[in-house]
Design brief:
Layout: H1 7-17, H2 21-34, H3 39-44, H4 59-62, H5 70-81, H6 89-92
Length: 93
């Protein structure tokens, strides 16, 4: 997906994740518009150098975390995102 969205790439994601094309489009829109407009993101991105490229979120965010494999980096990324889902986090998104 780093090289752009194509029907083939969407079908690969759809098959791997088992979600509908509209769901993938909704997730992509959320990462690029809703997430990037949150107060959390405006503060958190300053801690990531270089800042993740918003045109390829969430992949560019995941790349900022070190680990021996993707599941470890994903776990670190999810911990980083936890302020979005605290008692008041649901209001931030």
């Amino acid at each position: 997906m780093d090289e752009g969205v194509t029907s083939r790439r969407i079908e690969e994601l759809r098959g791997g994740l088992g979600v509908h094309r509209r769901t993938l489009q909704r997730w992509r829109r959320w990462w690029r518009t809703v997430f990037t407009a949150t107060p959390f993101w405006s503060v958190a991105r300053a801690n990531l150098m270089p800042p993740p490229d918003i045109t390829v979120l969430p992949a560019s965010l995941l790349e900022r975390f070190a680990g021996p494999d993707t599941p470890m980096r994903l776990a670190q990324c999810l911990r980083f995102l936890t302020p979005l889902y605290g008692p008041y986090g649901d209001h931030a998104c």
